[in-house]
Write a structure and sequence with these properties.
By secondary structure, the protein is an alpha/beta fold. It contains ten helices and five strands. It is globular, with a radius of gyration of 21 Å. GO terms for molecular function: carbohydrate derivative binding; carbon-oxygen lyase activity; ether hydrolase activity; isomerase activity.
């Protein structure tokens, strides 16, 4: 089946250089408003993918995003927050980025055509059938991602993807594809806009839902947050006070520092004593 490159279709707007600031921001806002609706259509696919991720992580496996360009870089931003926010160990959720995560700020777009790098890096990480690998590509055809997923499937590794065109080659290589069709971009072909916004929203859904289902959240609170700075420490102290009914800030703080996390402190403290 021929892939329809909706992401490359002409913008619905033209003569942009003649528009005022007010007109431009209004039009961009109009286009952005379409993203959540497109994600809503794809929720059944997203839910199935998340269930697979949860199952893999719960069984001791890992998750890997593989991506290039804006989507790959956005996945890095999501993943690097998880150990601090949810207290999971580094290496459970990972990104293989074209050109390397260390080159995140360089925007090495030429690296997306490398057909060997993704599998080479996954192999170095000793990827196995215990893991799940998710390809990120607005076009659905990025060689770096496509060839990486092909290698994964050939090695019995579960695959997923997030793409923005229907019937793509990458979706065909994914056991659990997610197709979020956001339509033509405001600037023709500039998939850092609506496609990038959709990817960020889906990354949030995946990581947040997965961490909740894996028990890293209680109520609506980040009870496993790492105490890495004064702002987070203060937030955690107030959280602990609310959770177990302590009224003395310093008492709660000392208990929190003793046990290292809100969750551990909750399990070891009562409202009466440390």
């Amino acid at each position: 089946m021929q892939m329809t490159r909706i992401t490359e279709q002409a913008s619905l707007y033209d003569h942009l250089e003649t528009k005022s600031v007010e007109e431009l921001t209004q039009y961009i806002n109009q286009e952005d408003a379409k993203v959540a609706a497109a994600i809503k259509v794809a929720l059944p696919q997203i839910n199935v993918l998340i269930e697979q991720i949860i199952a893999k992580l719960a069984a001791g496996g890992r998750m890997f995003y593989i991506g290039a360009g804006s989507g790959g870089r956005l996945s890095v931003l999501d993943v690097i927050e998880l150990p601090t926010t949810y207290g999971i160990e580094k290496g459970r959720v990972n990104v293989v980025l074209a050109g390397g995560v260390a080159q995140l700020a360089e925007a090495l777009e030429e690296c997306e055509d490398d057909v060997n790098e993704a599998w080479t890096k996954l192999s170095e990480a000793q990827v196995s059938p215990m893991d799940i690998v998710i390809g990120i590509s607005a076009s659905g055809s990025t060689p770096f991602v496509l060839e990486g997923l092909k290698k994964c499937r050939a090695n019995q590794i579960t695959t997923g993807c997030i793409v923005s065109n229907p019937d793509s080659g990458i979706a065909a290589q994914a056991d659990f594809p997610v197709e979020v069709i956001t339509g033509p971009e405001f600037i023709t072909g500039s998939t850092r806009m609506k496609c990038g916004t959709a990817q960020k929203m889906i990354f949030d859904m995946i990581s947040t839902t997965t961490m909740i289902r894996l028990g890293r959240v209680e109520g609506n609170s980040m009870v496993n947050v790492k105490l890495i700075n004064d702002k987070i420490l203060d937030r955690a102290v107030l959280m602990l006070m609310d959770k177990i009914g302590l009224t003395d800030y310093e008492e709660a703080k000392q208990g929190l520092l003793k046990y290292g996390s809100v969750k551990e402190a909750m399990e070891n403290l009562s409202s009466k004593s440390i």
